[in-house]
Amino acid sequence: MSDYLIIRIPFDNPSKPEIIEFLANVPLDWKKYLIQVANRVQKKGRYVVANLEYDFDHFYPAKKEATFKKVEKLTEGKA
Questions:
Q1: For 6, 66, 72, 74, which has the most beta carbons within 10 A of its beta carbon?
Q2: pLDDT tens digit string along 13-30?
Q3: What's the pTM value of the predicted model, to 2 decimals?
Q4: Three-state SS across 60-79?
């Protein structure tokens, strides 16, 4: 299981990154999505994606687990 963070790294202070957005769903085109986020936020900096991976699924509802695993398998390696 994984989620994604959109992080802005300011050009003038790269040691102070800012979390812009938390995503549970993966956009089809990361480059296009990051441009949209940068235009919306309107702050200079480098916008990057961080993948948060979890090694446990025990909190996921049991009846949704099959759908979840299918989607994870289909989207694996496409980010």
A1: 6
A2: 999 999 999 988 888 899
A3: 0.63
A4: CCHHHHHHHHHHHHHHCCCC
